[in-house]
Design brief:
Elements lengths: L1 H11 L8 H5 L7 H15 L12 H11 L4 H9 L6 H5 L2 H6 L18 H4 E2 L8 E2 L2 H4 L23 E4 L4 E4 L8 E3 L2 E3 L5 H9 L40 H4 L42
Antiparallel strand pairs: 1-2, 3-4, 5-6
């Protein structure tokens, strides 16, 4: 089949070319009767040349199974992912009453939260009544991760001078390399903001996106302005856990240039009263008058 042939050719030039297909995809017996039935259908489709099955793609259950098998090789990355926000489940995201009070779940939520989900929102949830009565129809689905490894990584990617990340585009059912993403123009009011050229920062922007006017810090955007303007997300965030606790000391000495201990400053964006939100902190955050230089 052309699709299998193209995938095999991509695997031959990938970083995983020494890894057997079954190590990631499993065998006909990996998942019991379900695997046997699935592989039997594939063999039958092959022999009868059923072109309806020519474009073969992993469903969500298979994507999560591949991610679980990857954990045996990428242990530290998996542990980081488990400790970070991207390991959130459907229950965490879609039964968040506070968020559902502001915005009712709808189809575009799957663009970031559940990219590989196989159905529609009405199949995932019962959205009758108030947010505290919303239900996820399948209890097993409720415990699945909404941002698995393959949301940001393509396994059959070529080696060489290419980024290790790619974004899964749900509408196209395919991955797009992050260095092929367009760099958006961002603004602070009317001023154009300097943004990072790091492809990984462009990946973050696919979900942590601004409003229609591209205002930095609007909606779910975290584009830094102020003293951190131009920095990549990964300058402060660990790639898989998103942890930032030790990032300040990577650039700052024990005391900042202003004589402040940066490790004791309230810099979190989670605190609405934070005077030093790390994404927007500027000299004026601490100094009422311009500094003499």
């Amino acid at each position: 089949m052309p699709w299998i042939r193209a995938t095999h050719e991509a695997w031959l030039t990938s970083a995983h070319k020494e890894i057997a297909c079954t190590d990631c995809h499993g065998t006909a017996l990996s998942e019991g009767l379900h695997s046997v039935q699935e592989k039997t259908r594939m063999v039958v489709s092959h022999w009868i040349k059923d072109i309806r099955n020519e474009d073969i793609r992993l469903n969500e259950r298979q994507v999560l199974a591949v991610a679980d098998r990857r954990a045996s090789c990428h242990r530290s990355e998996h542990a980081g992912w488990l400790s970070g926000g991207h390991s959130a489940t459907y229950r965490d995201i879609y039964l968040d009453e506070a968020h559902n009070q502001m915005e009712k779940p709808y189809a575009d939520c799957f663009r970031c939260h559940g990219m590989f989900y196989d159905g529609a929102m009405k199949e995932l949830m019962t959205l009758e009544g108030e947010p505290d009565t919303y239900l996820i129809n399948n209890r097993q689905q409720a415990d699945r991760a909404v941002v698995p490894c393959l949301a940001c990584h393509q396994i059959h990617t070529e080696t060489g001078d290419v980024p290790k990340t790619s974004v899964y585009v749900r509408a196209e059912k395919s991955h797009l390399r992050t260095d092929h993403l367009s760099k958006p123009v961002m603004y602070e009011q009317s001023r154009e903001v300097l943004t990072s050229d790091d492809p990984n920062a462009l990946l973050c922007l696919q979900c942590h996106a601004p409003n229609a006017w591209h205002q930095a810090g609007s909606e779910d955007d975290r584009t830094p302005t102020g003293v951190h303007e131009g920095l990549s997300c990964l300058a402060c965030h660990s790639p898989h856990s998103q942890d930032t606790r030790h990032s300040c000391t990577a650039c700052h000495p024990a005391l900042s240039n202003c004589g402040l201990d940066v490790m004791t400053m309230n810099t979190t964006y989670l605190d609405k009263n934070s005077p030093n939100n790390i994404h927007h902190i500027s000299c004026a955050s601490c100094h009422e008058e311009p500094l003499n230089r």
